[in-house]
Each structure stands twice: as C-alpha cells, then as structure tokens.
Design brief:
8-stranded mixed sheet; alpha/beta; Rossmann fold; 32% helix; 362 residues; ABC_transporter-like_CS; globular; binds adenosine-5'-triphosphate
Length: 362
Amino acid sequence: MTDKPILEVQDLSCHFVVKRDLLGRAKARVQAVDDVSLRLMPGETLAVVGESGCGKSTLGRLMMRLIEPTTGQVFLDGEDITALSHAELRARRRHVQLIFQDPYASLNPRMTIAETIAEPLKLYNILPASKRRARVNELLKLVGLRPEQANRYPNEFSGGQRQRVVIARALASEPKAIVCDEAVSALDVSIQSQILNLLKDLQARLGLAFIFISHDLSVVKHISDRIAVMYLGKLVELGTAEQIFAEPRHPYTRALLSSIPVAAARTVRPPATERLEGDLPSPIAPPSGCRLHTRCPHAREDCKSVPMVLEATEDGHANACPFWRELPLADLGLSGREGRDPRLEALFAAFERFAEQGRATP
Ligand SMILES: Nc1ncnc2c1ncn2[C@@H]1O[C@H](COP(=O)(O)OP(=O)(O)OP(=O)(O)O)[C@@H](O)[C@H]1O
C-alpha cells in the first residue's frame, strides 16, 4: 500500500431539503451526512457500518458524486472531484464503481450479459468494438462465470450469478475503488460467502480498494481492514477491524456489537450499560452536542453540548466520545460473539445434522 489515499472525503456534509416554504426556501433538512472525513488507501477495505438511516448510502453516493455535497470535498487520486464539471466527472467515474444490494434491479433485463459487461468498455472508450467480446469473456472468467453464458439474459441467472455479472461490469471500467453498498445483503448466506470470497480474491489480484457499506458487523469483520461506525450522519468511531472488535470505545459501537446475536436460536440481552434507550431521533432535528445522548446509557449533562469530533489515540483508533475512558464498561463477551453470524450458525448446524444422519445410515 502507498501512503496516498485513492479516495478521500474532507468535512463532507449532505443535508437534503425535505420541506420548502411558498417562496421555495428550505424549511426542513435531513442531515444525512454531517462533517465526515475519511480516507481509503489503495488495496484497502474500509467498512462503513451503522443502523438503517444513519447515512451510509448517502456517504457512498457522495464519494462518487452521484449526489452533490452541501459542503466539503471528495478527492479521487488526489483530485478534487467536487470541483469538476459534469463532463470531466464522467471521465473520472470509471475509477470508482458502485455495486448495489439488488442485482435484479441493477441489470437491464433487455440486455444480454455480454452487452451489459461491454457497456463500460464502450462508454469510457476502453476498447474498440473488435476487442470487446474477448475482454467480456475474460471478465466473465474472472468472476467465475463461463463465456458460453455471455448471450443469456439476466432472468436466466440466479441472484449470486447476477451479482457476479454486476461485479464483472464494474471491473470492465478498470476501477481503482469499488463502493459495495450492502452488496451481499439480498443473497442467501452460502452465496454471500462466495461473493465475499470473490471480492477478496479480486482485491488481491487487482489491488482494488473497497468501501464496504453494511449494517451487518459480523459480515464486515472478516473482510475489512478498517471500520468506520456512523450514527445519525456522524462518524462515531474509526479503527482497524481488530481495534473495533477487541476494544470498542464509543457507546454506540459497543451497543451495536453487543447486539450481535450469539446463536441462531439464542440471543443474549446485552447488559444495561451497553443498551441504547428509545428510538432513533429524527435526522431533521438531531439532538444537540453528542447526537447519541438521548439514547446513551452513559449520557451526562455535558453530552448535550460536547462537539461530536473524532479524537484519535496514538494507535490511530479514533472515537467521538470524549468520556470513553471513564465509562463503566461491561464485558461484552465478544469472544463468544465475534463472527458468529446467526445465519451461518444455522447453516453449520444444518451441515452437522446432515453429517450425523450420514453417519447413522449404514
Ligand atoms: N434523496 C433524499 N431526500 C431526502 N432524504 C433522504 C434522501 N436520501 C436519503 N435521505 C435520508 O437521509 C438519511 C440517510 O439515508 P441513507 O440511505 O444514506 O441511510 P443508510 O444508513 O444507508 O440507510 P439504509 O441502510 O436503510 O439504506 C435518512 O434519514 C434518509 O431518509
């Protein structure tokens, strides 16, 4: 890895206007992303996690300038893409690709797989028409599909195969980074691990960097180098996957981790010091100070006014709770939880039962 980020966002905010007065002036805004700074290094996987509505997808789209930031900048390979014209931006977009959750919705049902994968080759003028088919075949093989499948339509493929096609199309533009927005969430658990393995394999072969957006901490643990945790548009913690799982510091991260179910049929209720109270506040009028204070089990008076800024310790592990050293922390029992995705547990249990039956049959 070099020390120059492939993608960087600085003080990035996106406030959507959701209500206007008769004169068209903004009356209410959703603070979807608020003052976020992050760097993605070449070849790295950075996960962005948090509850639904915390701003993960908006952040992913801002990184590609698919939506315009309210304030802040996005740098791609050192170049500020928020300052580019739309024509200039189009040329740069090939370097960052986006993979969505739903492989059904992101493929055109009227285009063959070959046409779909060849699209970026044509759009970005990467190859002349005569060489595109050979490249499509290469890309199909790279994602574990067969060139003979190239003339088929998306409806002839399973969910996992379609996601492979989406990945092949993303690779066609030779990106340096891919934003995976809940890229495996819609897939069965066994297919999820195949796609995750494929992404890891492609990363090793092609030196790709990934932003991996997910609400599922047990998925990101195994594939991420670093993890950024978001709450109500703000970054609350940032560290290596090991730091986040071994020593979660922010009460929000701790609550997220302690709510990972331990086993398929058994969930352990987290201790009161690690549980959030109440519902997610409205992002239109987020709480003052630390946005978590209305739900935090450790909240004190100061939290209503304390600025929500990431502070890093020497090891680079950053979090936005200035009081984290003083928190009376319970043992989260993470050694029993880490990576124990309940769906995987169910799958392993099914395998074991199957093996048992096999042994019992003469
Ligand atoms: N175009 C939009 N106009 C108005 N509000 C929006 C728009 N897009 C997103 N939001 C709001 O911004 C906030 C963040 O949404 P976002 O989709 O980024 O969250 P998320 O963490 O990705 O959630 P999910 O996992 O459910 O997709 C939410 O309150 C959402 O309702």
